Amino acid sequence: MDIKKLKSIADIFTSAGLTELEVADGELKIVMKRNCSVSSTSEIMQPAIMVSESAKTTSVAAEVPGRFIKAPFAGVFYTKPSPDSEPFITAGKAVKKGDTVCILEAMKLMNELKAEEDCVISEICAENGDIVEYGQPLFRIG
After folding, report:
1. Are the CB atoms for 86 and 80 separated by under 8 Å?
2. Structural domain for 130, as ranges
3. Is residue 20 classed exposed, middle or buried when 0-12, 13-18 and 19+ CB atoms within 10 A define those classes?
4. Do residues 20 and 32 touch, judged by C-beta distance below 8 A?
5. pLDDT tens digits along 68-78
6. 53 and 78 inside one domain
7. Are residues 79 and 136 in the same domain?
8. 79 Cβ partners below 8 Å, 6+ apart?
9. Do 134 and 89 reside in the same domain of the chain?
10. d(Cα 68, Cα 142) in Å, to the nearest integer?
11. Which of 40, 59, 135, 139 is buried deepest, with most CB atoms within 10 A?
């Protein structure tokens, strides 16, 4: 299965708000499950996605404490405006309210994500080109 097809399946899973999805393509079987639990108002929903290929299983779950700029919706995370450009920000950089920190692509639309406050980016939590979930931490701020 090619990466575009896998990305397409992941987009359907997140945009439809599904809690479970199973797809079979010949010998390949993909199972995606989302377990959401909230124990306090400051805690985000924590998705867990299970992907299995034959007997191999990988679990992805993000649980990190701190203050973050989080993804307002699911999409593809980009750190720069174009492949040849410099990144919008780097770790350790101070940003002002309204500065663009990244682009999130959803449904072929490029959406600039702006800082909601003056802050310092202490860590970039996602990689350029990653598919991110709603509420996933993108940047740790200090």
Report:
1. yes
2. 68-141
3. exposed
4. yes
5. 999 999 999 99
6. no
7. yes
8. 87, 88, 89, 102, 124, 128
9. yes
10. 9
11. 139
